[in-house]
């Protein structure tokens, strides 16, 4: 199935599979945690019949599945029999680091009933040896922070076009109605000359040419906008490097109809010209 990327995440308990799953979610993958192996071929068939609606999949299958996990090799063979391509990402870490992580989180190792944490880790390593030998990519998380693991997964599994592309939502809003709760960055443009006090502009919005001309005829508007653009162009690559998939930039004036709308429109043009994905939202434009 050439149009579907199907990643099976497995590996040692405590090696970072939960963090890996969150990273795949941020990349837009359809994610399933701890799916019984016997259901993997069925799910693959459903994805193939989704007409492209499900084209990137990441699922975790590990020792938590108990006796069900032993059928993972059979499930992989079933995928191969129907011609379904898949990739295996195997996560591991040094024993002393795994022991420390379990102690710090006070979690119980899935095989701890066999003895100590160390004995559980050794038994799990033996049981996973065959799966590890089939892995397309092995990541040792011993010295990796969660952010570094996310960056590694992004570099391996994000399409090139999305590694450098972040979804930027520009929100024009009115402070009188409250600041958007999901905003990452908030800018206040209430210091700019207000079209509301020009009678023939009052019923219009920042999407009207007359309002745009009024907002942009002032020197202070151009000075502020240049500083705003410089800051945004500096910050966005930093957010991309951090692995942030979405950025919400809110620009507010008093009512959210004139100045903020005009500012969002111009900033949207600049960012779209840089090949970023941009969504514009005029939250309060229709309010009295």
TrEMBL record:
ATP binds at residues 11-18. Residues 168-285 form the RapZ C-terminal domain. One of its GO terms (molecular function) is ATP binding. Keywords: ATP-binding, GTP-binding, Nucleotide-binding. It holds the Pfam family PapZ_C. It comes from the Bacteria. Residues 4-158 form the RapZ-like N-terminal domain. GTP binds at residues 62-65. HAMAP family: RapZ_like. This is Uncharacterized protein. It comes from Dethiobacter alkaliphilus AHT 1.
């Amino acid at each position: 199935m050439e149009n579907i990327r199907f990643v099976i995440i497995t590996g040692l308990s405590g090696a970072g599979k939960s963090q890996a799953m969150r990273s795949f979610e941020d990349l837009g993958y359809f994610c399933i945690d701890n799916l019984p192996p016997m259901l993997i071929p069925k799910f693959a068939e459903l994805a193939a019949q989704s007409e492209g609606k499900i084209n990137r999949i990441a699922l975790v299958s590990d020792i938590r599945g108990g006796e069900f996990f032993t059928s993972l090799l059979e499930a992989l063979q079933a995928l191969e029999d129907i011609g379904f391509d898949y990739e295996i990402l195997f996560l591991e870490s040094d024993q002393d680091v795994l022991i420390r992580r379990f102690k710090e989180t006070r979690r119980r190792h899935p095989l701890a009933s066999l003895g100590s944490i160390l004995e559980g880790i050794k038994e799990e390593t033996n049981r996973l040896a065959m799966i590890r030998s089939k892995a397309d990519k092995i990541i040792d998380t011993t010295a990796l922070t969660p952010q570094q693991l996310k960056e590694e997964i992004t570099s391996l599994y994000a399409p090139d076009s999305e590694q450098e592309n972040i979804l930027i939502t520009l929100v024009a809003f009115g402070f009188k109605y409250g600041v958007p709760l999901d905003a990452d960055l908030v800018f206040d443009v209430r210091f700019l000359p207000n079209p509301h006090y020009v009678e023939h502009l009052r019923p219009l919005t920042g999407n009207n040419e007359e309002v745009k001309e009024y907002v942009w005829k002032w020197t202070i508007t151009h000075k502020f906008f240049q500083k705003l653009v410089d800051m945004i162009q500096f910050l966005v690559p930093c957010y991309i490097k951090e692995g942030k998939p979405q950025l919400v930039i809110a620009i507010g004036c008093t009512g959210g109809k004139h100045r903020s709308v005009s500012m969002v429109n111009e900033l949207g043009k600049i960012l779209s010209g840089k090949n970023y994905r941009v969504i514009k939202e005029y939250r309060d434009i229709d309010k009295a």
